[in-house]
């Protein structure tokens, strides 16, 4: 019985904590990637430049800072037109989905992850991201319903109190 109660409280705690399983990057990782991009731009091959830009994009969209995420989204969107490889396109679309998730644009994120799953239906990362997005949308819906119900209750209570004072 204690295990069931503990399990219940753990699930409630994880629901309200809003945690997800998407990794985060910090400012030091981003700085390291930026240095790598600058070094690659000095004359390395196009392939190394593209790889370093991809790592920087990954770090940016996985950042805790919204301005980094927005920068990563902009970089990825700008680079999508220049892709010939379906694998690279899938990777960039996935990273865009992560960026939009991090920025709170869940419907756009879900659209992009669905694109990834059309190409690779069993891609584990995309499946995890899709579940994370759907869980977040459901959680926000439940919280929104709770806020609305509370507001309606407060208004109804205020009206009832006002009517009882008049009588």
From TrEMBL:
Domain of life: Eukaryota
UniProt KW keywords: Membrane, Mitochondrion, Mitochondrion outer membrane, Peroxisome biogenesis, Transmembrane, Transmembrane helix
Signal sequence coordinates: none
Compartments where located: Mitochondrion outer membrane; Peroxisome membrane
Regions crossing the membrane: 141-163
Keyword Mitochondrion on entry: yes
Biological process annotations from GO: autophagy of mitochondrion; mitochondrial fission; peroxisome fission
GO CC annotations, alphabetized: mitochondrial outer membrane; peroxisomal membrane
Membrane association type: Single-pass membrane protein
Pfam families named in the record: Fis1_TPR_C, Fis1_TPR_N
Function: Component of the peroxisomal and mitochondrial division machineries. Plays a role in promoting the fission of mitochondria and peroxisomes.
PANTHER family (UniProt xref): MITOCHONDRIAL FISSION 1 PROTEIN, TETRATRICOPEPTIDE REPEAT PROTEIN 11 TPR REPEAT PROTEIN 11
UniProt similarity note: Belongs to the FIS1 family.
Domain statement: The C-terminus is necessary for mitochondrial or peroxisomal targeting, while the N-terminus is necessary for mitochondrial or peroxisomal fission.
Protein name as catalogued: Mitochondrial fission 1 protein
Organism lineage: Eukaryota, Viridiplantae, Streptophyta, Embryophyta, Tracheophyta
């Amino acid at each position: 019985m204690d295990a069931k109660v503990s399990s219940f409280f753990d699930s409630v705690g994880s629901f309200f904590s809003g945690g997800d399983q998407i990794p985060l990057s910090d400012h030091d990782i981003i700085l390291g990637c930026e240095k790598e991009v600058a070094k690659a731009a000095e004359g390395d091959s196009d392939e190394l430049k593209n790889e370093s830009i991809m790592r920087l994009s990954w770090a940016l969209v996985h950042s805790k800072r919204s301005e980094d995420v927005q920068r990563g989204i902009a970089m990825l969107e700008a680079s999508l037109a220049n892709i010939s490889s379906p694998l690279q396109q899938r990777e960039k679309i996935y990273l865009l989905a992560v960026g939009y998730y991090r920025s709170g644009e869940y419907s756009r994120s879900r659209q992009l992850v669905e694109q990834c799953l059309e190409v690779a239906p069993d891609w584990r990362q995309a499946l995890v991201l899709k579940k994370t997005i759907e869980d977040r949308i459901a959680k926000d819906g439940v919280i929104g319903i709770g806020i609305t119900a509370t507001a309606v209750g407060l208004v109804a209570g205020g009206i009832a109190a006002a009517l009882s004072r008049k009588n």
